[in-house]
Amino acid sequence: MAEEVLVFGAWGSPFSRRVEMALKLKGIEYKYIEEDITNKSPSLLKYNPVHKKIPVLVHNGKPVAESLVILEYIDETWKDSPILSKDPYERANARFWAKFIDEKCLSAIFKACWGEEKEHEKALEEASELLQFLENELKEKRYFGGETVGLLDIAANIIGYWLGVFEEASGVELMTREKFPKLCNWANEFVSVSAIKENLPPREKLIAYFRNRFGVGTASK
Amino acid sequence: MAEEVLVFGAWGSPFSRRVEMALKLKGIEYKYIEEDITNKSPSLLKYNPVHKKIPVLVHNGKPVAESLVILEYIDETWKDSPILSKDPYERANARFWAKFIDEKCLSAIFKACWGEEKEHEKALEEASELLQFLENELKEKRYFGGETVGLLDIAANIIGYWLGVFEEASGVELMTREKFPKLCNWANEFVSVSAIKENLPPREKLIAYFRNRFGVGTASK
């Protein structure tokens, strides 16, 4: 049966890029539909009535929303090139840290880059503390997933690519090589993987987008 | 090999009760350690240095934190009496709605019960809208998991038991039988399952705890 795989996304979103990265890693063909997040399409609202957000994966007519949920769905539906280990403990770890990135790191990074001036030092320190956990979690591994890119690497695309963009757009220095040598090495490795590289929005365009959307960063105020 | 399974929890927490419910459903013996959340133990801080929160499951010395992550770990480690379907789409649905309960419903319910007085009507309406999604998701099923209790039922323990406690403690009426007949039936079925019933904190004690902690509800102000 010919499969129909649709991805509703936005070009600059790390969340819909996650979905595309996983599909590319597994060699699954899909049709990409760019959403205007200021004027959402009836299809998006139909497929994700709860959150009304990208990304949504629609597989043979059935929608799945929430990027981390989609990643697991992809891994369980197309089993080649797994992005989660078979080992329950490693799977739990990947899920734990992916959740940590979405629920803790992202808002801390935003606050460090574009938060209130008077809280800048504190926000910077908090974001650094969170990144330190990820630095430690890398241990001596090439990727979070071990020898190959896995779910946690994909979830960490925010750290591996978008963070550098946020830093440049806001003028804030956060993930320095001195403090985070492993994360920096990992980021370099990560963006060199072809399925990942093909799914990164152009850096300059992204910097312009975030600068335009969130203004000058806290450090430059 | 004799397995060691520890659960760090707090008696009134729906989150650590989730872990106990899953273990009980699967017939796994465990040792329960009650944490004083106002004075956390060195063990808890060692096992969950990131969030410093219960619940933590420690299996043969290895800690897993975050209740939904723990539920998946339990299901993958002890495969009898599965709490997730084998079907990737049903699994994705269960994960999606469990996440929805934690990230959307819980805060909306709290706001409806103990939020600011001037926002009470709006908060009540918002919480009702969210519960309506769950009402619809039940369809004609006995449990969210179908014929047996699954991960989403366990995650929904907040709706199935704690919500009634919140209502009584705060004096707010939210999940009425008129508006949510399916959810009300489900809640009755859910709390009648023996592995669940054994893991519910005493209702009166819980009401007193929440009344004491959060004070008189918005509706009574």
TrEMBL record, chains A, B:
Top EC class for this record: transferase
Biological process (GO), any one: glutathione metabolic process
Source organism, top-level taxon: Eukaryota
Catalytic function, reaction form: RX + glutathione = an S-substituted glutathione + a halide anion + H(+)
Signal peptide extent: none
Example of a GO MF term: glutathione transferase activity
Record-linked InterPro entries: Glutathione-S-Trfase_C-like, Glutathione-S-Trfase_C_sf, Glutathione_S-Trfase, Glutathione_S-Trfase_N, GST_C, GST_C_Tau, Omega/Tau-like, Thioredoxin-like_sf
TM spans (from-to): none
SUPFAM superfamilies per record: GST C-terminal domain-like, Thioredoxin-like
Coiled coil regions in record: 117-144
Entry EC no(s): 2.5.1.18
Keywords: Coiled coil, Transferase
Domain GST C-terminal: 87-214
A Pfam family reported for this protein in Swiss-Prot or TrEMBL: GST_C
PROSITE patterns attached to this UniProt entry: GST_CTER, GST_NTER
Residue span, GST N-terminal domain: 3-82
One of the record's GO cellular component terms: cytoplasm
The family this protein is said to belong to: Belongs to the GST superfamily.
Name of the protein in question: glutathione transferase
Organism per entry: Quercus lobata
Phylogenetic classification of the source organism: Eukaryota, Viridiplantae, Streptophyta, Embryophyta, Tracheophyta
